[in-house]
Amino acid sequence: MSNLKDKIKETYAAVVNEENDTTNCCTPSQDFVTSCCGPNAEVTGFSEDYSQLPGYQAEADYGLGCGIPVAIAGIAQDHTVLDLGAGAGNDVFVARSLVGAGGKVIGVDMTPAMIEKANANKQKLGYENVEFILADIENLPLVENSIDVVISNCVLNLVSDKLATYQGIHKVLKPSGHFCISDIVVSGPLTSKMNEIVELYAGCIAGAMVKVDYLATIEKAGFKDATVEKEKTVYLPDDFLLQYLNAAELREFRNSNVQILSVTVKGVK
Q1: DSSP-assigned letters across all residues of 204-244
Q2: Which pLDDT score, from 0 to 100, does residue 158 have?
Q3: Do the beta carbons of residue 79 and residue 57 sit within 8 Å?
Q4: How many CB atoms lie within 10 A of CB 173?
Q5: What domains are defined for the chain?
Q6: In sequence order, what DSSP letters do the residues of 123-167 get, joined into one string?
Q7: 179 strand-pairing partners
Q8: Fewer Cβ within 10 Å of end Cβ, the chain: N or C?
Q9: C-alpha neighbours within 13 Å on the C-beta side of residue 32
Q10: What CA–CA distances, in Å, run from 229 to 16, 44, 215?
């Protein structure tokens, strides 16, 4: 697992290091976002447009999400909000505009380059009620019952122990606190070959759980009223998959009729 985490860190550090390169593999466009798991491979249905949201900062947006959980999370004035896998601060800065000066937003990320970029963005903005923490979201270094709302955008699929992660979310939330998380799930099991490809894991595909199992994991972690607020299908083109699969393996995946899904889920402690 440590090798996998190293690969994920390497992948997302490269996003920061290549941010001034117009051919960056994670640059969003009007119709698609190219995946971090392969050079110039178009993957439709991932990133969504944040640019019209209050508090949006273009320098913090690398187009790495699969939804906009912060927009429907029910964040209110004076809330304390936690963003898991905060990256350069995209969702954090939008959340900060919602909590106001009396609230606080904490972003956690395990990639040093992302935390460095997030803190640079924070310094430019002069926010005093925003904090970025370098940590593993499977082992949150936060006080129990201290958070009103947890958000995350296309990150939990990257962790190996999703039950432990959701239990950690449950632990840090205040009584009756809630989460709103966008994530990638699948309608059925992926082929064994796809699950073996570390690049697809880093690109948010291979680590995805089957949807029914994902929702059951949330319930097992202690949450109630977990509901899928939004869902859309993510299409993986053949030319993208053929970077990692041979023709027979691609046919096996297509014949399985498994769908890659972007979901935004809410749940209450």
Answers
A1: TSTTPEEHHHHHHHHHHTT-EEEEEEEEEEEB--HHHHTTT
A2: 84
A3: no
A4: 25
A5: 2-268 (3.40.50.150)
A6: HHHT-SSEEEEE--TTS--S-TT-EEEEEEES-GGG-S-HHHHHH
A7: 150, 267
A8: N
A9: 14
A10: 31, 20, 12
What does the block give as tokens for 26? Answer: 């994670």
pLDDT bracket for residue 237 (50, 70, 90): confident
Pairing, β 209-210 against β 42-43: unpaired
Q: Please name the helix (run of DSSP H) or strand (run of DSSP E) that holds residue 179, with its range, or none.
A: strand 173-186
Question: Is residue 30 helix, strand or coil?
Answer: coil
Structure confidence by residue, pLDDT tens digits, 49-88: 999 999 999 999 988 888 999 999 999 999 999 999 999 9
Tokens linked to 120: 């640079």
Which tokens go with 167? 């239990």
> Is residue 203 very low, low, confident or very high in pLDDT (cuts 50, 70, 90)?
low
| Amino acid at residue number 89 | G
